[in-house]
Amino acid sequence: MRRFACVLMVAMAGLLGFAGSASANATLDLIWTGSTNTSAVLGGSAIQAASGDTLTLAVYITAGTEGLSSYGISIEFDSALLNQLNVVGTAEYGLKPTVTCTPFPSCFFDTPTMAPFTPGVSSVIESTTSAPGFVYTFEAGTLGNGLLASFGAFQIGEIMFSVNPSVVTDGPDVLSGFFNVGADGAYDNASQPVTMNFNSAAVDAFAPEPGTATLLCLGLVGLAVAGRRSRD
């Protein structure tokens, strides 16, 4: 099915006059929008988490100056091979605006319809300590003009992760890109291939509360003093 989606994406580019030169950049952002841990701060590309938490990662796309008529984008996670995350769910939206369309209903016709070629992502490959995990593929397209830069960021899907005990603070843990070879790619409204700016997301371990760290330090000092006195 995903090979069919790729063929359809290329066919649409051909129908609209594909010429082969790269278009202006579009941007792919990964934003944490949910957590079962009430201490987590949402709305950014990095989040703190503890073992057993469930996190929601939103996938947003913003068109470049030449627009966007089709895309296929995948996600890699746990590239450090620490098996910090497991996928527990995914959702694919096509194009879902981040703001309410106004004035309705006239504005509805100014927003392009870009539906997924096939329902849902094609597959999820879980990470291990010897290989990263992947979510293949968020994709959608239209036979007419698609997303314009003036529309801003659109949410095209989301991924729900569970956090494993191996979670540490070690930099980016979730990457976006054209990882599904033969299926991923993007074209603008002039049927040119799009150069994407791919952004990442991080899951960091919760740091000890200042009070806890202070108590731990005082406890260690107390043990050291007690040990010295016993030797005296």
CATH class equals Mainly Beta
- Percent helix, as a range, is 10-25%
Helix/strand-derived category reads: alpha+beta
**Overall average residue pLDDT:** 81
Question: What is the overall number of helices?
Answer: 2
What spatial form do the alpha-carbon principal axes imply?
elongated
- Termini separation comes to 77 Å
Instruction: Specify the CATH architecture.
Output: Sandwich
How many domains? 1
Strand content: 35-45%
Give start-end ranges of low-pLDDT stretches. Answer: 1-8, 10-19
What fold name stands as the CATH topology?
A: Immunoglobulin-like
Q: What is the total tally of β strands?
A: 12
* Gyration radius, in Å: 22 Å
Give the helices and strands, then pairings.
Blueprint (H helix, E strand, L loop, with lengths): L1 H14 L7 E13 L10 E4 L4 E9 L7 E8 L7 E13 L25 E3 L7 E9 L12 E10 L10 E4 L7 E3 L6 E5 L1 E6 L4 H22 L1
Parallel strand pairs: 1-11, 2-12
Antiparallel strand pairs: 1-3, 3-8, 4-7, 4-9, 4-10, 5-8, 6-7, 9-12
